Amino acid sequence: MRTKALLDTGATSTFLIPDIAEYLGLELSGNPTEAHGAGRAFSVREAKVEVQLETSRQSRPGPETHTIDVKIPTEPDAIPFPVLGRKPFFHFYEITIRERKEQIVMRRVYS
């Protein structure tokens, strides 16, 4: 599945909308907990998901794959689209926002 998502420098966690979680058949774990974002608190459950990011690097072409923890709101309209938070993306990549070019450059950090 391909989708667009918001890279949110102010969000700690990564969130998927319930429709995507259902489409992917994600197994939700544990009891609902509370998350804060989008100007309010809402109930979420957690899951693990495999994410592939396309790369244009010549030395290692093809997608990079990561298994990450995501939070899924229990209310269908709690968030309007997926949110990529700092955890884990800012741990794996140096991120440069090129506002005038409307680009986000993510360079893999190997250390």
Features:
111 residues; 44% strand; 7 strands; mainly beta; globular; Cathepsin D, subunit A, domain 1; two-stranded parallel ribbon
Please characterize this protein's 3D structure:
The protein has 111 residues and is mainly beta. The chain has one domain (6-108): Acid Proteases (Cathepsin D, subunit A, domain 1, Beta Barrel). 13% of the residues lie in helices and 44% in strands. It is built from two helices and seven strands. It has helices spanning 18-24, 86-92; strands spanning 6-7, 29-37, 40-53, 64-73, 83-84, 93-98, 103-108. The strands form three sheets. A three-stranded antiparallel sheet has the order 2-3-4, with no helix packed on it. A two-stranded parallel sheet has the order 1-5. The radius of gyration is 15 Å and the shape is globular. It starts with 5 loop residues before the first strand and ends with a strand.
Summarize the structure.
By secondary structure, the chain is mainly beta. It is built from two helices and seven strands; from the N terminus they run E-H-E-E-E-E-H-E-E.
